[in-house]
Write a structure and sequence with these properties.
By secondary structure, this protein is α/β, with parallel strands linked by helices. It has 2 domains: 3-39 and 151-296, 3-Layer(aba) Sandwich (Rossmann fold), CATH 3.40.50.1100; 41-137, Rossmann fold, CATH 3.40.50. It has 9 helices and 10 strands. α3 runs parallel beside α4 and α6 packs across α7 (178-190). The chain is globular and about 60 Å long. It starts with 11 loop residues before the first strand and ends in a 15-residue tail after the last strand.
């Protein structure tokens, strides 16, 4: 076994204390922060690199290159180290210091882009650099079908099995949208009645790191705006508050997008009838955001 074999099969944890605010609805969360590099992005990163190796596009001597807001970059850096490939990552300059240090610790080269351009700026810079195909293997997490396929093959299957097929709603935020697209597709194949709900920040200018406001950003190539049965809109302040609640009330030390997902899941659950089963994702660990001021409130 190596580090690539440790991805997936994460626990499904019931948010029992937060669920008390509902009328008999159960809320569960996939503990994706327990993947080896500490985030849900391990699933997609692993799948894209294995696809590159199998297709012959990732060969000895090439560097792995991609854009990231942090978590996928950490996963690429970790797997690159394990597989013996150098890694170059483009990311916004305002990415948290903890995530930058993690990438550097795995030996990755960081190319920082303007924070005013967000993840779109990093994506455009990485795409330009990737034209040097002799030097780089460019997984392109925003357009690589292996990204959502990883969640179709694993996350959706795990949720179905872990809930014994009684899940009624799947809800999560979208960065590349791979988790949402792949997981919801698989769950709907098991049961077309499962509702897929996408979480969105309520403003283009938000602080929920790793989550895109789809109406104001470049759409990933595999994103289908019609795939969601409904949307739940969250505020940055609400996501921050729920992140703190997860730690203090559920014993789950997670990142901001996880707090946003849990808030949206709770808001959704309050609208549902008793007996419904809502599943969301806890995307990464709060250790990646310890320097953020919201923890001190």
């Amino acid at each position: 076994m190596d580090v690539l074999d440790c991805v997936g099969n994460t626990p499904l944890i019931e948010l029992k204390n937060i669920s008390r605010e509902t009328s008999g609805v159960r809320i569960f969360a996939k503990a994706e922060f327990l993947n080896p590099s500490g985030s849900v992005k391990d699933r997609a990163a692993r799948a894209m690199l294995l696809d590159g190796l199998e297709s012959g596009r990732l060969t000895s001597g090439k560097r792995i290159l991609d854009a990231t807001s942090g978590n996928t970059g950490i996963a690429f850096a970790m797997f690159g180290a394990a597989l013996g490939f150098g890694v170059t990552l483009y990311l916004p300059e305002n990415c948290s210091e903890e995530r930058k240090r993690m990438m550097k610790s795995f030996g990755a080269e960081l190319m920082e882009t303007s924070p005013l351009e967000g993840s779109d700026g990093a994506f455009l810079s990485a795409r330009a650099a990737a034209e040097d195909t002799d030097t780089y293997f460019y997984p392109d997490q925003y357009n690589n079908i292996a990204n959502p396929r990883a969640h179709y093959d694993t996350t959706g299957v795990e949720i179905w099995e872990q809930t014994d097929g009684v899940v009624t709603h799947f809800i999560t935020g979208m960065g590349t949208s791979g988790t949402f697209m792949g997981t919801s597709k698989r769950l709907k194949e098991y049961n077309p009645g499962v509702q897929a709900v996408a979480v969105q920040p309520d403003s283009p200018f938000h602080g929920v790191e790793g989550v895109k406001h789809m109406d104001s950003t470049i759409h990933p190539g595999f994103y289908d705006p019609n795939a969601a049965d409904a949307f739940e809109w969250i505020s940055t302040e609400g996501a921050y508050a729920m992140t703190r609640r997860l730690a203090k009330e559920e014993g789950l030390f997670t990142g901001i997008s996880s707090g946003g997902n849990a808030l949206a899941a709770l808001n959704l659950a309050k609208k549902l009838r008793s007996g419904s089963v809502v599943v969301t994702t806890l995307c990464d660990s709060g250790a990646r955001y310890l320097s953020d001021a919201f923890w001190r409130v």
